[in-house]
């Protein structure tokens, strides 16, 4: 199923071309409190014994046409946003030429995953949102990535069990300044942490609809031209390994996002650009680009 956040920040169940409101259904069945956060909604849908009853109640309610709703980022305040770094060989190669990135070819899996970084929730922007290019930035790239949504608290989880802790999947745009601060020292948290630098959407697709997260195509169009065509099978560390590694470090709570790194094909952004990303099994999400006022 697809779970979204729409209009005034309400949780919804998408079926076909309709959105069924979820907030009242979850609250009246006791699955969540009233005005629950999206992290609480995810926790309830993944773990509460009354979740199926709540979904049945929602489906009996009055639906809103999907085309009439304003989709927001499916979560606006996740417990954490963990972001994989240099997780495709092709992207490692292009970044060597782009910013003189150091050679990671001999890194062990855990050495590479130790470069995972955090993005702030204040950077989140949703479908149809606008990426604002900071005045200080001389060069900003997009990165488009498969993003994992955690559904159950996970600590010290094996790779073999990792997908049992996944609620679903979405798309993440990891917008990144390359100049200034893109050379010589580690500045990812700043360069990738500006407001609007974390596009998330268009919704969450639950894990039962994605049989294998390492078998998805990623495509990006910039102003109508295809600039990225990639496949998640080419990740160095897949979803299972990322969950294993991160859960060995910290407890991954429901609603936590793990974005898995970009393939090659990143491209510089300019004011007026229009981006459209598509991930197989998930859907498409568009962003506009504008200069800071």
Automatic annotation (TrEMBL):
Domain (Fumarylacetoacetase-like C-terminal) ranges: 81-289
Cofactor: Mg(2+)
Pfam families hit by this protein: FAA_hydrolase
Keyword Metal-binding: yes
GO molecular function, one term: metal ion binding
UniProtKB keywords: Hydrolase, Metal-binding
Biological processes, Gene Ontology terms: small molecule metabolic process
UniProt-listed SUPFAM superfamilies: FAH (SSF56529)
Metal-binding in keyword set: yes
Lineage top rank: taxon: Bacteria
Similarity remark: Belongs to the FAH family.
Protein name: FAA hydrolase family protein
Organism: Paraburkholderia acidisoli
């Amino acid at each position: 199923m697809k779970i979204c956040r729409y209009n005034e920040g309400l949780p919804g169940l998408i079926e076909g071309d309709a959105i069924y409101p979820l907030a009242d259904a979850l609250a009246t069945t006791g699955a969540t409190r009233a005005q629950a956060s999206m992290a609480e909604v995810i926790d309830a849908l993944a773990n509460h014994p009354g979740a199926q009853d709540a979904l049945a109640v929602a489906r009996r309610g009055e639906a809103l046409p999907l085309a009439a709703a304003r989709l927001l980022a499916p979560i606006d305040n996740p417990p954490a946003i963990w972001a994989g770094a240099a997780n495709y060989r092709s992207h490692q190669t292009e970044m060597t030429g782009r910013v003189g990135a150091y050679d990671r070819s001999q890194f062990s899996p855990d050495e590479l995953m130790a470069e995972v970084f955090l993005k702030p929730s204040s950077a989140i922007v949703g479908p149809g949102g606008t990426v604002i290019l900071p005045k200080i930035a001389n060069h900003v790239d997009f990165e488009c990535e498969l993003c994992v949504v955690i559904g159950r608290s996970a600590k010290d989880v094996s790779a073999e069990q990792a997908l049992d802790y996944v609620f679903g999947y979405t798309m993440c745009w990891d917008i990144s300044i390359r100049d200034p601060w893109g050379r010589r020292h580690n500045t990812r948290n700043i360069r990738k942490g500006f407001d609007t630098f974390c596009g998330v959407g268009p919704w969450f697709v639950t894990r039962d609809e994605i049989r294998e997260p390492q078998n998805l195509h990623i495509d990006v169009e910039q102003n109508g031209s295809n600039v990225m065509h990639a496949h998640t099978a080419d990740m160095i560390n897949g979803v299972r390994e990322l969950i294993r590694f991160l859960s060995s470090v910290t407890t991954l709570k429901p609603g936590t996002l793990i974005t898995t790194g970009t393939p090659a094909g990143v491209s510089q952004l300019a004011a007026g650009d229009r981006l459209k990303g598509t991930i197989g099994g998930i859907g498409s999400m568009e962003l506009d680009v504008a200069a800071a006022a």
